[in-house]
Prior knowledge:
This protein is an alpha/beta fold. The protein has eight helices and twelve strands. 29% of the residues are buried. The mean pLDDT is 90.
Amino acid sequence: MRLAMLEDDRDQSSTVETWLRDAGHDVHAFSHPRELMKVAGRESFDLFLIDWMVPDISGAEVLHWLREDRNDPTPVIFVTARDAEEDIVAALGAGADDYIVKPVRRLELLSRIEAVLRRVRPKEPERELNAPPYRFDIANKVCSLGDTAIELTDKEFELALFLFRNVGRLYSRGHLLEAVWGRNPNVATRTIDTHVSRLRTKLALRPENGYRLTPTYNYGYRLERLTEE
């Protein structure tokens, strides 16, 4: 999963980042809230891990910005030394999904992250994904429209599967790139535009087939399921 972490303590940040990367997560670490807010304004993430006590702007203010100004429902876990009951209640009431009190323990942190992600995401199917009129045979990497198999490259299949697993969610180009290609500095974000264009044509993502793949200017893409009027 693609995680954004806000932590101004360098040692703590380095340690937690190592734990998360070892667990298979892609981590973007920030030491200042304005840095995170700048990037979160143009990129999407699967989860935010936010320290409450950070310079200039509190973690609570960052949470308010995400929920109220950005209308961003991405899960947020607070990590902080503040352990008073009223602080925990206030954080959860403001829209945080969980609250971890320092010192952070590796297994607890990883299990809390997995628990939050399970709550907000359905378990991914193991062998097949059905989204009529589309069907994805995951084991054999075959996508069909009705009874017709569609010829896709491996990366086109992975990108299409990711989008169909996350219908309705807006993803930044960077997020899509990392989800399919990983953090590869040699792959340009325009690669996403090329693959999206091919998918739109190959999968016939048109209203008559019930789906539309729409761009958001200077940000990314959203696969939308259309309902009949």
